[in-house]
Write a structure and sequence with these properties.
Number of domains: 2
Helix content: 55-70%
Structural class: mainly alpha
Largest sheet: 3 strands, antiparallel
InterPro entries: VCA0040-like
Order of helices and strands: HHHHHHHHHHHHHHEEHEHH
Number of helices: 17
Mean pLDDT: 83
Protein name: DUF368 domain-containing protein
Oligomer: single chain
Keywords: Membrane, Transmembrane, Transmembrane helix
Shape: globular
Transmembrane segments: 73-95, 101-118, 130-150, 156-189, 201-223, 311-328
Number of strands: 3
Length: 336
C-alpha cells in the first residue's frame, strides 16, 4: 500500500486517540483502532514481528527489514500512542479525580456508538453469533464488577501487569487500564509516568511487549478463521463494559492505603461516592475504590447530600462522544 506523509499523519492522530482511550480505566484503545479502520493491519503487523525479521535484516539490509516490519505504519501509530498516553494519563488522573461524571459521560457515548459500529461489521447472524455476543457481554460485565486488588508498589510486578493489560488494551471493549486497576497496578504506573520513573516504565513496557507479541498471533488466527464469531464476541465485550463507564456510581467498599484494610465506605463518610468525598477532603490517596455499583443520576444526587448530578452537561458530552465515532469512522475510510 502506497502511503504519503498525510496518510501517516492521520495514522498518528488515530494513535493519539488510542492512547487517550487506553489512559482511562474503562475505555479500550482497541475499540478506537477497530473503528478507525486500522485494527486488522495492526494485529497482522504485530504478529509478523519474529526472528524472520532479523534474518531479513542480515541478508537484505535495513530497507527490506523496515518494509517487512511495516515500520512506517508502526512508527506513526506508536508515536501518536506514546505522546497521547504519557500526556493524557496525567490529564485523565485530574479529570477522574475532579470531573468524573464529565469524562465518563463522554466515553459512555463513545462506547454506545462503538457497539453499533462493530455490530454492523457482523455479516451473518447465526445462533452461534448470538451465543458469542452473550458470552462476551457477560464476561466483560463480570470483569467490571470484580473488586480491585490493593495497590502493588513492587516495580517488577509491573512486568506481569503489563503483559496481562496489553492483551486487554488491544481487545475492543476490554480496558487495559481497568485491568491495571483490578490488578492494583494502575496507581503505581500512573505515579511512574508522573514522576518519569524510567525503571518502572521500562519494566511495564517490556511486559507489554512480551504479551503483545504473544496475544497478537491468537487474534490474527481468530480473525482469519472465525471473523464473524470473533466480531460478535468483541461486540459483546464492548456492550458488557458499559457498566464500568456509567458516570454515576455508589461506592460500596474502599481500601485504606495506610492500614491495607478493606472497609465499607459507610464507615468513612455519610456520602455515597468516594470521588465526592475525596474532592471535598482534597485527599485522593488515603482511600481507593474496591467495589462500586452503578446508580441512577437522581440516586447519585440523593446519596451525596443533594449534589448536582450534572445530568444536562453529561447528556451533551454523551452525544459528543457518540458523534466522535463518526469522525473516527470517516478517518477510517481514508489512509487505513
Amino acid at each position: 500500500m502506497q502511503r504519503h506523509f498525510k496518510d501517516y499523519l492521520i495514522i498518528s492522530l488515530k494513535g493519539i486517540a488510542m492512547g487517550a482511550a487506553d489512559a482511562v480505566p474503562g475505555v479500550s484503545g482497541g475499540t478506537i483502532a477497530f473503528i478507525s479502520g486500522i485494527y486488522e493491519e495492526l494485529i497482522a503487523t504485530i504478529s509478523n514481528i519474529n526472528l524472520k525479521l532479523l534474518k531479513t535484516f542480515k541478508n537484505e539490509g535495513l530497507s527490506a527489514f523496515w518494509k517487512q516490519l511495516n515500520g512506517n505504519f508502526l512508527l506513526a501509530l506508536l508515536t501518536g500512542i506514546l505522546i497521547s498516553f504519557v500526556s493524557f494519563m496525567r490529564l485523565a488522573k485530574y479529570l477522574i479525580e475532579n470531573k468524573p461524571i464529565l469524562i465518563w459521560s463522554f466515553f459512555f457515548g463513545l462506547i454506545i456508538a462503538s457497539i453499533i459500529y462493530v455490530a454492523k461489521q457482523i455479516k451473518v447472524w447465526r445462533p452461534v453469533t448470538f451465543i458469542m455476543l452473550i458470552i462476551g457481554a457477560f464476561l466483560a460485565y463480570y470483569i467490571t464488577i470484580l473488586p480491585s486488588l490493593g495497590s502493588s508498589t513492587n516495580a517488577y510486578f509491573l512486568f506481569i501487569a503489563g503483559a496481562i493489560a496489553i492483551c486487554a488494551m488491544i481487545l475492543p471493549g476490554i480496558s487495559g487500564s481497568f485491568i491495571l486497576v483490578i490488578l492494583g497496578a494502575y496507581k503505581t504506573l500512573s505515579d511512574a509516568f508522573h514522576d518519569f520513573d524510567i525503571k518502572k516504565i521500562t519494566l511495564f513496557a517490556s511486559g507489554a511487549l512480551v504479551g503483545l507479541l504473544s496475544f497478537s498471533h491468537i487474534l490474527k488466527w481468530l480473525f482469519k478463521n472465525y471473523e464473524n464469531t470473533t466480531l460478535a464476541l468483541l461486540t459483546g465485550f464492548i456492550f458488557g463494559s458499559l457498566n464500568k463507564i456509567w458516570p454515576w456510581k455508589e461506592t460500596v467498599s474502599v481500601l485504606n492505603e495506610h492500614s491495607g484494610n478493606t472497609i465499607s465506605f459507610s464507615e468513612v463518610s455519610n456520602l455515597g461516592t468516594l470521588a465526592i468525598y475525596q474532592k471535598n477532603m482534597e485527599d485522593f490517596d488515603t482511600y481507593k475504590t474496591v467495589l462500586e455499583q452503578s446508580v441512577l443520576p437522581s440516586t447519585y444526587a440523593q446519596i451525596n447530600g443533594g449534589i448536582s448530578s450534572e445530568l444536562g452537561i453529561a447528556i451533551v458530552l454523551m452525544i459528543s462522544g457518540f458523534l466522535t465515532i463518526f469522525i473516527l469512522e470517516k478517518l477510517g475510510r481514508r489512509a487505513s
